[in-house]
Amino acid sequence: MSKKITIILLLSISIIFGSEISISISENLVNDYLKLIGNHEVPKGPKNDQAIWSIKNPEVKFEHGSAEFFTTITYKKGKTNIKKSIKKNIFVEYNFDNNQVTLVIDDPIVKMERKGKIYGKLDLSTFYQSGLKFHGPKPKEKFIKLKTSKGKVRVAMNIKNSIIYFEKNVVRVALDLEYK
Fold first, then answer.
1. Total-model pTM
2. What's the CA dihedral at 74, 25, 28, 85 to 10 degrees?
């Protein structure tokens, strides 16, 4: 009962003061997840001739208008040691049907090369992509019922569009609602 009252109150306030409902994903939340996963050492190649890939200190930065992923990757095989500082853009996908927000590392393939020779490739999405999914802002209910002095009123919530905001330290996904 109190859950319904809270939802009705929040939606009523939304009706009066605006037509947007949103979720915010903070830079700290994503970086806490990346710290929890930690650094990786990944052997790649045939058993007797493996290269060791190290992924260290992954983090994200959310700024006005952009989101970026940073890490340091090293490649070691025999006498070959290559170290690269990686900076990749992050884009946000919102799937309305399953109400899921996904932070996607753009161009997640890292190539280790020296003097034009490519020593190997590593896909960052295999380590980080699955945990960068969040519930979206879509309300569970499509209608709200309000008791007024004229009786019960049923108000439909129609979603006009989704909006993605990149702000300092936060990515916000919003739905622009229309009430009928």
1. 0.79
2. 20
